[in-house]
Amino acid sequence: MGRRPLLLFLSPWLLLLLLLVHGVSSLQFTRDDFPDGFVFGAGTAAYQYEGAAAEDGRRPSIWDTYTHSGRHPEDGTGDVASDGYHKYKEDVKLMGQIGLEAYRFTISWSRLIPTGRGAVNPKGLQFYNSMINELVKAGIQIHVVLYHMDLPQSLQDEYGGWISPKFVEDFAAYAGACFREFGDRVAHWTTVLEPNAMAQACYDVGILPPNRCSYPSGSSNCTPGDSTVEPYLFMHHALLAHASAVKLYREKYQVAQKGIIGINIYSMWFYPFTNSAEDIGATERTKQFIYGWILNPLVFGDYPEAMKKAAGSRLPFFSSYESELVKNAFDFIGLNHYTSVYTSNNDNTVKAPLQDLTADIATLFRDTKNDTPSPEFVPGTLVDPLGLEHALEYIRENYGNLPIYIQENAPAYIVSGVNFKVKKYDFYLTFGPEFLLALHQKPLWRYVELLEKTGKDQGGNARFRCRFSNQVIHGSYSRVKAHLLKIGTIGVATCKKVTVDILGQLEDEMAKAEAISARNLPNNIPLPTESIPFNVATMWDVGGDSYDLFDGGADFPRHAELSLDEPNIERVLKDLRAFDI
């Protein structure tokens, strides 16, 4: 068989992964296991990839300030990073050689518009235009993220950055410059990466730029902030900035450029630690803070009731105009999903000297049932292939059949030290079969529209409108199926608009789903512990039998020039080309 693409896209789901494969003859997956439209891809972040921090007019960002503050000596700087600013052409060539179909990168606001507003930097514009043109020539689909933790420091100094309402207008103007300059070649836009994670990490516990928190919350090395309100202000303005960018794109650019725009969510799955009502309630409350914080405003125009109850007056509110602005302000929702945790109710938060985001969630987290509980929802190390499926089902049941792009997905590993080896068997993990089943098992969701969620905390019932007859169905997927397939179920009226031909089509879809469910899928699919790290060259172990990954900070040098070990690189490429999907 010939060489096939190694990156996946799917509508309504997108899997954006780099699969590094060794010993591929043991795999049973073929291209037929994946729906048409899947694309395999990889991604980088500007600060961790570009380097050239002070070249050609780029000005400092809050990430530069954070890494140069001296408070976090264990973290490298992005001064050199992977030197992608100078070596992007050879990186694009490598992407083509290993068969990537898509590449997601972030734009450095500080490089394109160094002071945060005003004129575009010609050198920054030249760099991104050149890189985009190289990707176009290579036939690689381009995905652009507008923001990933690198706000121009000048805006942080001027008015506090994200926690000020002034930020919304500046972000929309920056987004507009990107649409104007790059939109003729970029058709996939993500406004903000993982804002729900940034709210806690950047403004509650202060472990990421701009490193803000207040006593007794968070890190002892943080800069003075207010953990009681700043996480909520950050997210509120993030949603308004996102929606403003979407409005601008739809009104001025989308028709001509024919692209799509969305936002990204940091996704985890949460299991109750026990079957007690308290732990089940805490689990549902956590899901509303993680998913509902973003999805509830985007789908319904307001924050979840659980958040209003927990945060009270500290949670900003949407005006009627803002509510309409954010509602439906997306063409897709991106998910970054890595792990799952066990959750239990935390009664001690009512005794806390101040109520911050962590206290409002009022939940303790464990990677396993034997772990010491933690109040912070930081990435864990539990490898849980079913977690992604549960997350997709939760979103569907609570917010409807949204177009979801899975932009990052892999097992979570927390690694200390500079250099570690990952043997080839570590890649053979159990994400594949469960994910494929989640794609196929419930195909009838696309024929109904979610009206409202009506179930209790742990329930999944909702009101749906049939897209054929406009009839309202109250229940879960089983009732949707009974309605559309004309199955006689008490309390469910069958769809009178489903003709014999339509019924045959629906039954064919269900039969395919059942066949896939019954199939003896393999237990393993190779997935990487990281996507394309700071440069593709670092993915290979020169002269060895395993892949080399690095956790040495953004300044860690390139592993080796490819010319130093061409035979080993060619061996790896041969394995990749042999992976028949």
From TrEMBL:
Database matches in Pfam families: Glyco_hydro_1 (PF00232)
GO MF terms held by the record: beta-D-fucosidase activity; beta-galactosidase activity; beta-glucosidase activity
Xref: InterPro entries: GH, GH_1_N_CS, Glyco_hydro_1
Record keywords: Glycoprotein, Hydrolase, Signal
GO biological process, one term: carbohydrate metabolic process
Classification via Gene3D superfamilies: Glycosidases
Signal peptide start-end: 1-26
Keyword Glycoprotein in annotation: yes
PANTHER family assigned to the protein according to its UniProt record, in alphabetical order: BETA-GLUCOSIDASE 20 (PTHR10353:SF204), GLYCOSYL HYDROLASE (PTHR10353)
Family label: Belongs to the glycosyl hydrolase 1 family.
Protein name (record): Beta-glucosidase
Source species of the chain: Oryza brachyantha
